[in-house]
From TrEMBL:
The keyword Amino-acid biosynthesis applies. 3-phosphoshikimate binds at K20, S21, R25, S164, S165, Q166, S192, D311, K338. This is 3-phosphoshikimate 1-carboxyvinyltransferase. Its main location: cytoplasm. It comes from Natrinema thermotolerans. Residues 7-419 form the Enolpyruvate transferase domain. GO terms for cellular component: cytoplasm. Pfam families: EPSP_synthase (PF00275).
């Protein structure tokens, strides 16, 4: 599907979708349990991949009419899957499920689509091998397809922290049900650290004790997953909140936009509220009620470090294209290893729209003051975050902006274009 965005002003109320990061962890945590109910879950292409994996490990995920997920788990020890675990485009699924597979007493094969098969898994495979499992890349390049044979019993392992925080999440979740538990020593500084804080929060809600240590993280073995009252509720997603928030900062009329479901949590992407405010938008976050009100104002470029918030880079780049002056996004090298190289993708797409950028290995500078944002036909790179960020650019561009492959928003925000229409965006969808 291609979507064409016409310049538009926006107003009204937008509701944040549930968090993709929390939903992944909650589905798998319920899989590790005997049974659990997950409320307010995001049901998207990525989270469905995690649900399928739980089913292949011997659990069952049943989605009711009210959206609740009733999950019968595999109670700490996954079965050997009867089929290949296809993680589709979901890097979170691939990493979390690879560690779960190492607990099975047998061999699991994991794969995904072309994009996922290009993403690095080597450090996690090496860590699992150090813990007694057999974990290999079929092509010997640290990328999927993967073949994992367990079981592992736990112990101490070291792993780099600057490639993906998902490695640490995967090990902590699996380590809780091993005999010995796990001590994880970080070889390098941890990037995207708030995502591990999300993991610790979810584990705690499921009755599992995991913690920071002087050298990294640790989780005791022999634990059971069981949320209080048998239920867990997923909070709103600040990665997704970044899009209506930025839309309001770019194009809200006098009435502005109100975003609901924005309750505080461990999500690092809550930083987007401060970023938009620093750039000059009128923002009011009522943390108790979970609402954010935002109205447009002249924006000015700033410097933003995305070491802990890599998913915000496309949104910040679009804000920078509208702002006066330069917006420099730093500590961004790890953003190149997502569904696509998001640093290069945003530089290329914004360039087609008339925006000057300077791309370096670890940074992207958007020269908004030297640019005139113009409508163009741009590729979404099959990446949900690139697509949504470019849709925002279309609100302020001179002329129409067509985004190719826009259906990939289903990965994290299936109702994204519906929401844009509800707040006044003029758009056209073509198959």
């Amino acid at each position: 599907m291609n979507v064409t965005i016409s310049p538009s002003s926006v107003a009204g109320t937008a509701r944040a979708p549930p968090s993709k990061s929390y939903t992944h962890r909650a589905i798998l945590a319920a899989g590790y349990a005997d049974s659990a109910t997950v409320r307010d879950a995001l049901w998207s292409a990525d989270t469905r991949a995690t649900a399928r994996a739980v089913g292949l490990f011997g659990g069952d995920v049943d989605r009711g009419d009210d959206g609740r997920l009733e999950i019968d788990g595999f109670d700490g020890r996954p079965d050997v899957p009867a089929d290949v675990v296809d993680c589709a485009n979901s890097g979170t699924t691939m990493r979390l499920v690879t560690a779960a597979a190492a607990l099975a007493d047998g061999t699991t094969v994991l794969t995904g689509d072309e994009s996922l098969r290009s993403r690095p898994q080597g450090p996690l495979l090496e860590a699992l091998a150090d813990l007694g499992a057999t974990a290999d890349s079929t092509r010997g390049n640290g990328q999927a397809p993967l073949v994992v044979t367990g079981p592992l019993s736990g112990g101490e392992v070291s792993i780099p922290g600057d490639v993906s925080s998902q490695y640490i999440t995967a090990l902590l979740m699996a380590g809780a049900v091993t005999d010995e538990g796990l001590a994880i020593d970080l070889e390098t500084e941890l990037k995207s650290a708030p995502y591990v804080d999300i993991t610790l929060e979810v584990l705690d809600d499921f009755g599992v004790d995991a913690r920071h240590t002087e050298d990294g993280f640790a989780v005791d073995g022999g634990q059971s997953y069981a949320p209080t009252g048998g239920e867990y509720a997923v909070p709103g997603d600040f990665s997704s909140i970044s899009y209506p928030l930025a839309a309001g900062a770019i194009a809200a009329d006098g009435e502005g936009i109100r975003i609901e479901g924005a309750h505080p949590s461990a999500q690092g992407d809550t930083a987007i509220v401060e970023i938009v405010e620093r750039m000059g938008a009128d923002v009011d976050w009522d943390r108790e009620s979970g609402t954010i009100d935002v109205a447009a104002a002249p924006l000015a470029g700033i410097e933003v470090d995305v070491e802990d918030t890599p998913d915000l880079l496309p949104t910040i780049a679009t804000l920078g294209a509208v702002a006066d002056g330069d917006t420099k996004i730093t500590n961004a090298e790890h953003v190149r290893y997502k569904e696509t190289d998001r640093v290069s993708a945003m530089a290329e797409a914004l360039g087609k729209m008339g925006v000057e950028t300077t791309e370096e290995r670890d940074s992207l500078t958007v020269h908004g003051g030297d640019s005139t944002l113009e409508g163009a036909t741009v590729s979404g790179r099959d990446d949900h975050r690139i697509i949504m960020a470019l849709a925002l650019a279309g609100l302020a561009a001179d002329g129409e902006t067509t985004i190719e492959g826009a259906d990939h928003v289903d990965v994290s925000f299936p109702g994204f274009f519906d929401l844009l229409e509800e707040v006044g965006v003029a758009l056209e969808r073509r198959a």
